[in-house]
Amino acid sequence: MKATKYFFMLALAVSISFISCETEDTESCDAENLSDDFNCPTSVDAVATFCSDGVNNSYYTFGGTDYQCTGVEASTCDAAIQAIGAKLIEAGCSGKKSGSIDAANIKLTAMAEKLLEEVRTKSLCQ
Amino acid sequence: MKKKNFFISLLIIVTSLFFVAGYYLYKKNQNIQYVKQIQPHELDIVYGSDSAQLTVYLYFRYDCVYCRKFFTDAFPPLKKEFIDRGKVKLVVKLVNLTNEEPIQNSLKTIVCIHRFGNSEPLHQLLLLEPRVVYTPEFENTTQEFIEKDEFVAECMLSGLADNYLLGNKLEFNRIKLTGTPTFVINNHIYKGFKAYDSFKIVIEKELSTVLR
Prior knowledge:
heterodimer; A: 36% helix; B: alpha+beta; Glutaredoxin; 59% helix
């Protein structure tokens, strides 16, 4: 009878350990200072936190509020950044300096230049 | 008595393991989401034959690293092994999840060029350097297309391409997708980038369902 109890307990332990070992999607977060983006004075705390589970979900947290992104990457967080920007402007920042990407900062590689030329010459039917 | 205890214990363990395995199978199936049939569109970018046994829909953005990685890493062997052999058709549905005009214009350009010309050079360029869409050279090139080809101009300026991209975005939201790349195969949703070996397993599994 003792042996039965022993094995029953063992089976229960195995089952529980299997179920408890199942992992949820792990989320990682990074602090991001938005003061440059929104021209904030040093008195304004412009640090937001970007969190992503790498699979389905990402969001920014700022001032205790979560701002949901539409995808998993930071590039899908335009609306969230806009909402945080509005809060920062209320707090004394002067606003976003420029558009998202400055064309002057993009240097095309020789390969990209070559492909762009191919796009120009080989895309349309003759 | 000892022998009886042993068999009872063994039975309990086997039963427990059976339930654990059942639980895991149940959870595994729960991870595959189901969706209503995706509708094809004339502006979709299609690789493969219309008579292919299996259609793979791909929600895709050029401004997404793992989407580009799919095309550079997994697509070449997928094309060789499944698409060129008439087994699989890949239907790319471009989505713009930003409010950025250069991105919207680049997507309009590629779907219209694909419909009325050869989109491969532009596709390769956007895979290599997606930020090219912000350059004046790119803007000038799209303008040239509009001036040189009336069909491309009509497609880009009449709202056809804009409506198509909006439709893709609405569909993306309707089926509650949250990121790209996302694949829809046989109404099953597969989220995220998969290396070719993993993707091949999915394709073979879905192909076997179709052929059954």
